[in-house]
Amino acid sequence: MNTYQAKNIINVAMAGHSGAGKTSLAEAMLYLAGASDRRGKVGEGNTVCDYDPEEIRRKTSVSTAVAPFEWKNKKINLLDTPGLFDFEGGLYEATRAAESVVIVLAGKSGVSVGTEKAFAAAEKRGLAKIFFVNGLCDEGSDFYKVFEDLKASFGPSVCPIVVPYFEDGKADKYINMLEYKAYDYSGGKPVQVPMPDMGARLEGLRTAIYEAVAETSDELFEKYFSGEEFTPEEVIIGVSQGVKQGTISPVFCGDAMLMRGMEQFMDGLCWLAPSAADKAAELAVDVDGNPVEITVNEDAAPAAIVFKTVADPFIGKLSYVKVISGKISTETQLVNMRTGNVERIGKTVTMCGKKQEDVKAIVAGDIGAIPKLSAVNTGDTLCAPARKVTLDPIEYPTPEMSMAVVPKNKGDEDKIAQGIMRLAEEDPTIRFVNNTETKEMVISGMGEQHLDVFVSKLKSKFGVDVTLRSPRVPYRETIRKTVSVQGRHKKQTGGHGQFGDVWIEFSPCDADGLEFAERVVGGAVPKGFFPAVEKGLRDCIAKGPLAGYPVVGLKATLYDGSYHPVDSSEMSFKMAATLAYKAGMPQANPVLLEPIGALKVTVPDANMGDIMGEVNKRRGRVLGMAPAGTGYQTVEAEAPMAEMHDFSTYVRQVTQGRGSFTFEFVRYEEAPANVAQKVIEAAKAAGEVE
Questions:
Q1: Are 144 and 238 contained in the same domain?
Q2: Is the CB of residue 495 less than 8 Å from the CB of residue 543?
């Protein structure tokens, strides 16, 4: 592939709802441009962008793929993103590297949640938004209904560029509204034909174009509403500028499977989509935290963002980069701003799906990959030592579902932990915690499918079999009553015996664990044995009397006892303290404490009642509500951690994927009697307590 300057490079993220045909559209474009030898099909597992074994097996995208092609003296880098919400992190990666987002819709289903999410992601990054209505040859598709839905959802900025003409229920003809030309695809290849009679519909479409153009400037707005006609030049220039500014969202259409409308769409990308050079300068920060403007300039010091990594135990790590300024070649030395390490570039490549092609350099505005940067992670900034700057990282969604990882084979724990950490580097929407308290490895992800794919990758890439289960809840135990008990340890064997005798008062307090005190008078217990008593008690509080959970809020006061001048030892008094603990705790009205977390759920207005009802069902307390953008509310509540395991599934189902939430631990509270009883019975059944 030729080397292109930034003004001739177009970086496009393909986004939209699962099943809309993003990968099929990418496949058709690559085939038409000659970047692939044959047009693959998702169902057959032979597409360029869905090359991962998990994608082939599931017949859907699970990660972002890069596929460049050349068209009309332009290089277009396609970034094909997953449509499933479990793999939403791929959308955030692609929008960090792109200047435009092509939002693909199915002609049957039209505007869906995935459409809304893709539009919102593009808006957040200030990217151009281009709609493509796919599958118009499918039975039941209705372009004009979809178009009206787009107008209703996203306003007058939605502008028809290519529209279909239906004849006998077939969409064989496609009309370019700006060129005012019609093309017939019934013979396979586009043939220009006379404009068909579209009646009043044509005028309605023209009005939609004029409304969109009027939104691009005050001058054109006034002209439109004063009743003056736009010139053809004003329309074309207005649409072009509007798309680049983000004020116009053009609509194309076609059928990727039957190759209808592809040429017009690809031509449209070349003259409408902003190039890498059209992008405004990025604001980075230098080592002192001061803002620095980074322009897309090939002659400047290099600066690049790592927007994706692939971890392979055999090949090594592959880092996908978007070069913002300068160029990266084998002669380049770069600093990783996260670690401070100098990275030496062995080689630079371009990727087309899984295929690599060596290139001399990756220039400003372009996308490529660098192999074997073992210490580089997704989101890292690579820059010249002479100009150290940190670019905006990728803002990933928060993982919402947590599961405990259980090895199928004993002794695999270390191997599993290493595999998880390697895969978490590849996918930052995975969080990993080795919980020493519950003795569990816990992973958090975006949903059930996300974690299922993760488990499959652990097996295929690292050779370890695991299952997932609900993580243990880290309960606590405490007491509600003050008691005084004796602990007496006496053992006589040959030689020296063992003797320790203590009186300890156990009482509630506000400590996180054990608060130890003494008020021994008259030397009943020598001071030298006080640390042994405290040590014995601290060892004991690791397991409470009810269900074997750690004890908190316990004050233990040593106030009396006795000793033997020969047989007393530190071990004897440690044992005596243990006996006192075991005797006293059951008498002190022990109770079970459960963790309570702060919950913030952001959902559409229509789902507010459902969420509040569900929070109450899960023993939660709604604290308040606050607006969260147009049509959304945030419910603030507190809820027990034990009730939150499958909350992510509920939120996704009831909101069709529109909702999100965060949950963070805040404190412990006494568990209701029925809850405590279940936990205690489960602990006894598991042999945690007698």
A1: yes
A2: no
The verdict on 301 and 336 lying in the same domain is yes
pLDDT 10s digits, 274-325: 999 988 788 899 998 899 999 999 999 999 999 999 887 666 789 999 999 9
Residue 8, pLDDT > 80, answer: yes
- In single-letter form, the type of residue at position 472 comes to R
Quote the DSSP letter at residue 641.
G
Residue 17 near residue 115 (C-beta atoms within 8 A) = yes
Per the structure, the count of domains in the chain is: 5
Nearest to 363 by CA among 328, 314, 404: 328
- Phi-psi category of 441—alpha, beta or left, where left has phi over 0 and alpha has psi -120 to 50? beta
Q: What is the pLDDT of residues 442-474, one digit of tens each?
A: 999 998 999 999 999 999 888 899 999 999 999
The Cα 245–Cα 434 span in angstroms is: 47
**Closest to 68 in 3D by CA, of 271, 346, 320, 318:** 320
- Residue 102: strand pairing partners: 14, 130
Give tens-digit pLDDT for 654-686: 999 899 999 999 999 999 999 999 999 988 887
Residue 396 lies in a domain: no
Average pLDDT estimate for 126-135: 94
Q: What is the pLDDT of residue 72?
A: 92
pLDDT value of residue 690 = 65
Whether residues 234 and 293 fall in one domain: no
User: How far apart, in whole angstroms, are the C-alpha atoms of residue 18 and residue 90?
Assistant: 13
Q: What is the residue type of 416?
A: I
Alpha carbon 629 to chain centroid distance?
A: 21
Q: What are phi and psi of 44, to 5 degrees?
A: -95, -5
CA distance 185 to 176: 13
Helix residue spans in 251-316 (DSSP H): 262-272
Give me the DSSP letters along 181-202.
EEEE-TTSS-EEEPPP--THHH
Q: Look up the CATH number of the domain holding residue 640.
A: 3.30.70.240
**What is the CA angle 235-241-245, rounded to 5?**
140
Shared domain check, 144 and 64: yes
The 3-state secondary structure of 392-418 reads CCCCCCCCCEEEEEEECCCCCHHHHHH
CATH code for position 184:
3.40.50.300
Give me the mean pLDDT over the 45-72 stretch. 89
Containing structural domain, residue 220: 6-278
pLDDT for position 231: 79
Rounded to whole angstroms, how far apart are CA atoms 677 and 690? 15
DSSP secondary structure letter of residue 497: -
Kindly indicate the confidence band of residue 394, based on its pLDDT and cuts at 50, 70 and 90. Answer: very high
Do 259 and 138 fall into the same domain?
yes
User: If you average pLDDT over residues 23-50, what whole number do you get?
Assistant: 88
Same domain, 332 and 423: no
